[in-house]
Design goal:
6% of the residues lie in helices and 36% in strands. The chain is mainly β.
Length: 135
């Protein structure tokens, strides 16, 4: 079965090129916003209750993929052992800190996406519960 996805929103931030994205082990302090398209605004009801969100997006600037790549630490790894945008299916997942919500705009921190990145889905992420259980 083939699925067709359509974006529900877009990232707006200061990161304009892939080279601007802070790809490192430390969590990014980059702030920005996710503008959810008006037709999906109602789906955000209650999201403000969460401190973090999981965001599924498209690596829209990715061109092709490599199964073997050099990771951020310099080691050679398979693509599925990296966060590289050069993947067979250019889909990304980021956990972001939710700063505030204003209608269809989510203000976030920890961005690792470029301006204009299409958003496919948003889910609450129970960071505080996980931290309490595992950390």
């Amino acid at each position: 079965m083939i699925y067709q996805f359509r974006p529900i929103g877009v990232v707006c931030c200061k990161l304009k090129k892939l080279e601007d994205v802070p790809f490192h082990w430390k969590v990014s302090e980059v702030e920005g916003r996710i503008e959810v398209f008006k037709e999906f605004e109602e789906g955000l009801g209650g999201i403000e209750r969460f401190s973090h969100i999981a965001v599924i997006f498209i690596f829209h600037k990715s061109k092709g993929y490599k199964l073997i790549q050099r990771a951020m630490d310099g080691q050679i790894r398979g693509v599925f052992a990296t966060g590289s945008p050069s993947r067979p299916n250019p889909i990304g997942l980021s956990i972001l800190k939710l700063v505030k919500v204003e209608k269809n705009i989510l203000y976030v921190r920890w961005l690792d996406m470029v301006d204009g990145t299409p958003i496919l889905d948003i889910k609450p992420f129970h960071f505080d519960e996980i931290r309490g259980k595992f950390f």
